[in-house]
Amino acid sequence: MRIYLLALNPTDSVSEGFLPAAARLGLDVTVLTDQPAAHRRTHPDIEVLECDVRDHRAVVTRISTHHRPDAVFTNSDHLQTQAALAAAYFGLPGKDWRATLRTKDKAEMRRRLAAAGVDTVWSAEVTEPVAPAGTPYPCVLKPREGVASENVVLVDDPEQLVTQAKEILGRRPGAVLVVEEYLPGELYTLETLGDGQVRHVLGGFHTELSDPPYFIEERLTFVPAHPEPVVAQVLAQLDALGVGFGACHTEFVVHEGRARIIEVNYRAIGDQCDLLLARLLEIPLFELVLRTHLGEQLPADLGARRDGAARLEYPCADRAGALVQAPAAGELTVDGVHLTYRPLRAVGERHELYRTNRDYLGVLRAVGTDQRTVDRVSAEFLAARSWEIQS
Question: What are the extents of the domains in the chain?
Fold first, then answer.
């Protein structure tokens, strides 16, 4: 059986998750990408074909002139609609392209949720640096189709809004920005996996952010089960968007018992959280995701382990410059906690300060059975190591 995997740049989710899973399932894999050289370096044993993957017509043509597909899949935020349309064209299982569009387009997501009567958030779209009439302050300014908190900023007044919009549009000419009311509350995630009929809730994370006005995710702590009323509210909002097939990573806030979606990433959670989930829950997470795209039904019980505790930490750059000292990759077990550290920036690399997850210097994954022990061991690991940047 052949699966076509659509991708932009190589990611840990694909390299360490989905490609090994495809191999374990005995699948023939063809990667379609607009960055073939990078994928051939990273995956020298995988067939890689160049394709304008942002254009669903080019994807259909590339597949139809190659081998017959059994599945079309992507874990990229940017390519979900293209993959959904290609899968539908070939009569294969996949996500509803309307749902992928609603989740990718943050303005359309707000309109859909409001029309369904499940949540109404004040929002407006802008294409130039202006402060829309009626904007509630504080508000959040972000790209309509952005990811990873990039160019997302909290704004306190009209003057700041105009200034920040001008800066973002200068970096992203032609972009459409969304201005929306700030939603207070603690930030969480809900991780789900479905086959269109059955939907499993895998748990979620409590996310700790950087100080305002930016929204960099610095630490995530696993939450085995959110309160049932909270889960019910989030799932109702996902139902209104038509989300229910494959993996989905949903970010939401809870304030006075009310759960409100911030954004929906209709794919597996990234930044190595998916790798941690697979280990923590002791389920073949990546294989299960691929099986849904091959048309297989999910089991009624995934057999997930429920006594685990976990934490992810992201040491971040605090200024622009070259990384001159940093710890190497490593794995060790301390007091029953399995630690996995992976660098995300090589020593010698010079970078600007991005105010996004591109400032991550590395990621620490910690898995155990007692949260206090996991937290302590993680803190001690990080305190014993240093990252030095020279401006």
Answer: 2-92, 122-181, 186-390
Sheet bearing 321-325, strands edge to edge = 350-351, 321-325, 388-390
Class for the domain spanning 122-181 = alpha beta
Residue 148: pLDDT over 90: no
Mean pLDDT of the 214-223 span? 96
Topology given in CATH for the domain delimited by 186-390: D-amino Acid Aminotransferase; Chain A, domain 1 (3.30.470)
Percent of the chain with pLDDT over 90: 97
Pull the structure tokens for residue 202.
């895998």
CATH level 3 topology of 2-92: Rossmann fold (3.40.50)
Distance CA 206, CA 252 (A): 10
Strands 258-265 and 330-334 turn out to be: unpaired
Instruction: Please spell the DSSP secondary structure of 160-196, one letter per residue.
Output: HHHHHHHHHHHHSTT--EEEEE---SEEEEEEEEEES
| pTM for this prediction | 0.96
d(CA 175, CA 169): 6
* CA 344-348-351 angle, 5° bins: 65
Mean pLDDT of 56-85: 98
What span, in angstroms and rounded, lies between the C-alpha atoms of 241 and 264?
9
Closest CA to 213 of 250, 175, 168, 251: 168
| Residue 142 confidence class, pLDDT cut points 50, 70, 90 | very high
pLDDT band at 391 (very low <50, low <70, confident <90, very high): confident
